[in-house]
Every structure is written in C-alpha cells, then in structure tokens.
C-alpha cells in the first residue's frame, strides 16, 4: 500500500515478471536472439529515472531477494500478477515459465497471482497443458504473446481457427482474464503485426472473458482506443505507458492518459509496472503525484482525482481477480467527499 | 554538391512508413561512406526486434533512393536486427519482401504501406486543422507532406481539391467532431511512437538523434 496526503492506495501490479535471461539459459544456436531480446528490454529501462537503471548483468538475472525488496518492500505493491512468458526457442528453461514463477508462490503467500499462457499452434498438447496448469495452480488468467516464434512460425492472431478451442476452454474453466501482448512479428509478415482488430472480434464473441490489452496497444493506441470504446470487456493495461513515458516524455504521457481517460475511462485502466523492466516504486509514487497539466493542449481531457488513481492502481484489477480490498482503500463513492478532498488539499 | 551530400539528400526522402518521418532526422542512418561512385549505407533501428516489414521498406527505399544519385555500386546494410540477414540478402539481390521471407508472406508490402500513408495523412491534417476549404489555402511542411501522401494514395492533390479528406479521399467537414478527434489521436500515436523510438535509439547507440 501507499499513502500520500491522507489517501491510501491499494496497489495491485497487474503485470510483472521474474525472469532468467542469463547466458546460461540461452538456447545454443539462438544466442543472438536471446541476447538481443533482453538487451532490448534493458533499453526500455533506460526510459525510467537514471537512479533506477540496472547493469545488464543484474537485469539478465535477479534474485528472489531483489524481487522482494523492489516489489513488496520498496515498491508499495500489495498483490502482483505474474505473467508467464515462455520464448522457449530462445531461452532453454523459458524466459519466465509458469513453473519458475510458481516457485515464488509459497514464499509470498497471498501476494502473488499466477497467470498461465497458451499458444494455439501447440494444438491438443497445448490444451492439455492449459488444463493441467489450471488444475495445478487454479489460474484465473493467461498472458498471450502473439509474436512468439514457434517451429518456423513467427506469430499468430486471436482469430486463427486454432485459437477457438483455447478460448472455449478458458470460458469452461473460468480463466477469464486474458492479457494480450502484441509484438513485432506475426504471420503473414506483410501484415501489421500490431493490429488489434483480432482482439475486437474475439472480445465481441467471448463476452464472458476480459481482454486486458498490455501497453494499451502501443504502438497502435489509436486503433486500441477506438476498439476499447466499443467493447465492454476490453481493458487498458498501463505497463509501458507509465514506465516508458511518465518520466521520459511527460507531455506525451499526459496526452496519452488524457486520450485513455476519454476513450476507455478510469474504470477500465490497470496499473502494471512491467518489473523488472521498471521498478514499481517510482511509478506508483510518480503516478499518485501526477496531475493533468493545465495547458490548453490538455484542456479537453478528463481529470483524474485520487479516487480515479485508486481504481487504476489497484481496485480495477482487484475486481477482475476477485481480490478483497479492505474498506480503508476503497474509492470514496460520494461526490461530496471529492469536494472535501479538494478543499483539504487547497490550490496547487 | 558532392556525391555524399546528394546521397544524404536522397536518404532524406526516405520515410519511416510507420512514423511518417525521414530516416535521416530519426537518426536511422548510422553511416554513409562514398568511395568514388560507390556508396555504402548502414541503417540502424531503435531495437533489434523492430518489425521486419517496416525495416525492409526502409532498407529497400534507401537503396532505391541512393541509386537515383549514384551510378556506382550501392550497398545498403541493416545492422543489428534479428531478421537483418534475410533482409540484407534480399535488398542486395534487388529482390522483394516475399523473397526475403519465402513462405512467410501472403502478398507484398503495398497494402501495408498504404494503410500507414492513410494514418499519416490523418495525423498531418490534424496539425493543419483550420477553416480552409481548398488544399491550395494550406502551406508549410505538413501541407507539403499531405500533398505527397495524397498523390501516393491516388487522392486529388490539386489546389482546388478539398482541404481535408478521409484516408479514402472523401471530403471532411470542419464540423466533423469524430473525424478530428480520431485525427488528433492518430497524430498523438505517431508522435508518441516517434518519441519512444528516439529514446530507445539513443539508449542503444548512445548518440542524440536529430
């Protein structure tokens, strides 16, 4: 939890990782891809404040103790969602497989939510694995990474016919939160890999499932906003928006937040630190302090008050994952309370 | 003007199709070596995982642009990219995208390029928003780029043509709130991506891009 100016924030980090990208885990023959991938992530960390940058060695593999300190001790995070990402063509044991992530569950009881994953190209074996992961870990959600390489294929779409049995199985088992992450490759390669129209189709067809679009569809935020505004069950995952823009490009951050608040709304936006790309501490503190600028370019955008920040930092995700949040962290329901808060804070 | 300067000028006409900015101002031209009539250009991108289709378009467009000013050998290399091997081999054989990735494409890149030209047109127009009704009333770099994009898309770019059009070429009313909201959102998307690309390129290569 985080407390500032008398407001208490329950922080549910909806997107973070415990990965091993050290050279010992690189697939022989695929070293350049494994190395390039983690160096690319490391470059993204460069968009955060300088004092939060890590060495590449530390970034490739960090310890459980690092994780505990950065996320739970210093990072204000109450509950975190592990997004399993495999990339087994590049990383021998996987980048962060469900088994790797599960090892931390016992160490932090009640604080971690484990998500699985599936890939429609794995067919029947993949379905069996999904059922097994659900039986073993009781997963409520999955991370879907459409740009993963698999036996000569460089990606997939949610509208591929092979995805249908997986989506049906999610409905059947109650795996209702699908975190979709678009990447740079997909078949066929001449199409726009970041196109989100496949999500639009399945969100319409699968009303019992929630689709959390990671990094708000960046770099296709215009397509994402237009789609999200029409679909009741599409959510904006803010990983990369806060980490990648709030410090490096504050003006763009304000405008992107403004557009998201306008098109998607504060009830459907979820904080995600994307740790270990960025530590949660500066993101949570900076976001609570952030205000929509008063300049004319932002005049049309909705404002975000402490209640809205409480929803985005934790309450919205808590509702999706059935996490009980104590009363003291709830958003105030009465408009009068908002006015009081403004009076207490006084003019900036 | 010497050949190197002409090569740089030619490279300035090559746009990142996704960001609608010249590769020279984005800092994507890592080096340019002229030896007699022979030209060797090295391109570099913000991440090793930048989308292969856009990377291919920039490398192919760069090779074509340099060939318009040099009669010697032209060598364009995309460096530090996870599909660089495939792309470089195809570019230097003068082949297309589907030759670079046999079996992995369904068509050529024309439709992709046009999709992003429409987005770029939308974004540029949002910066030009005014009461103008004829294209001839608009001037400046954004207006010039709009004319180029309209011509590329087969949309009338004459002075008497409507000032503002949809991506399909239909005239837009100044009061069409939805169009302008989408246009400014598209502009923001392109600008945000461009900013992130610049920041990542700087982190990767340690130099400040223009």
What would your notes on this structure say?
The complex is a heterodimer of chains A (348) and B (210). By secondary structure, chain A is of the alpha/beta class. Chain A has one domain (11-345): TIM Barrel (Alpha-Beta Barrel). In chain A, 39% of the residues lie in helices and 12% in strands. Chain A contains 13 helices and ten strands. Chain A has helices spanning 31-45, 56-60, 64-73, 98-102, 123-137, 164-173, 197-205, 221-228, 241-246, 250-263, 280-289, 306-321, 335-345, and strands spanning 2-4, 7-9, 12-16, 79-83, 112-117, 141-145, 177-181, 210-213, 234-237, 269-270. In chain A, the strands form two sheets. In chain A, strands 3-4-5-6-7-8-9-10 form an eight-stranded parallel sheet, with helices on both faces. In chain A, strands 1-2 form a two-stranded antiparallel ribbon. In chain A, helix 5 runs parallel beside helix 6 and helix 8 packs parallel to helix 10. Residues 334-348 of chain A have low confidence and may be disordered. Chain B is mostly helical and 210 residues long. Chain B has two domains: 3-108, Fe-S cluster assembly (FSCA) (GMP Synthetase, Chain A, domain 3); 111-200, no CATH class. Helix content of chain B is 47%, strand content 10%. Chain B contains seven helices and five strands. Chain B has helices at 3-11, 52-67, 84-92, 97-100, 110-128, 141-152, 177-205, and strands at residues 15-16, 21-22, 29-35, 38-43, 74-78. A three-stranded mixed sheet of chain B has the order 3-4-5. Chain B has a two-stranded antiparallel ribbon with strand order 1-2. Chain B starts with a helix and ends in a 5-residue tail after the last helix. At the A-B interface, helix 1, helix 8 and helix 10 of A face helix 5 and helix 7 of B.
